[in-house]
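Troubleshooting log. The previous structure file for this entry was overwritten by mistake, so regenerating from the original sequence record. Sequence copied from the archived sheet and checked twice against the printout by T.R.
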Amino acid sequence: MKNLIFEFINYLKTRRIKKTVSYLSSISNGNFSFLDIGARGGIVTSDKNFLFFKNFLNFYSVGIEPDPEECERIKHEYNEVYPIAVSDKKTTTALYITKNPACASLFEPNEKIYHYSRKKDDLRVIKKININVDRVDNILDNKEFDFIKTDVQGATYEVLMGTGKILDNAFGCYLDVYFEDAYRNIKKFDLVDSYLRSKGFRIISLLPVFPDGFMWQANMTYIRIPNYVDRSIFIKLFTIASITNNQSLQGYLFRVYGKVLNSIEYSNLLKVSNINKKYLKMKSEIKWSHSDWRGIQS
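Regenerated output below.
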């Protein structure tokens, strides 16, 4: 019975997200761009809600994946696919191929961490090869993307350092970050978070991974709200908030930037997103600053 209730609640949540993003795409210019770094499995592997990005008429997506066979398998999902590994510089480096291909990394799996883990077999290295890597901004010539996703097994910091202006121009990103040394010598959450905060990004959702009862890693969504928000930017920010089901952020966007919509659009979006009314009320104790946005307080 509990499972049925949970499934029904999840169904309602997914339906609300779908309706919201569909409406946002209908009142937009149709443009939304998505960069998938570590694209194994395709767009929906990390979060099935990413599929709703495709509601935008001019949805443009690029996948970067070092496994050429996987690139061939997923190429129909993207406008462009690049079969290359990425980091913070153009060089030649080692790639550790693991029993589970999804766990392959530019960093060596740390046996001290995974030796007693139920993921032990997945992380077992079966081969080490040398590969060429490059910076994302070199490969894509500083194209602009609204949303960036990474799934790079410990190399998130290096990948972000290699994005250059691409990250500066993005409004949101979904990243795999580590709290334990599952791979040797990786840059963990504190450095990744500090770098993103220096770029104006703030955390809006966290999905922890507990392979053995403690949190090894998490998939985290960040958003960057620029100083100036017009109608087009509002729609993209609200889309990201909707994909993560962050009603508190949706409420903040309505309160602070909702005036960029006309009255009909405002009313319709309020209806389809079905935001809890408490998030639409400004709390007197919260001092919001457009130029120094410090996250969402509920």
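The chain has one domain: 27-246. Archived copy saved in two places this time.
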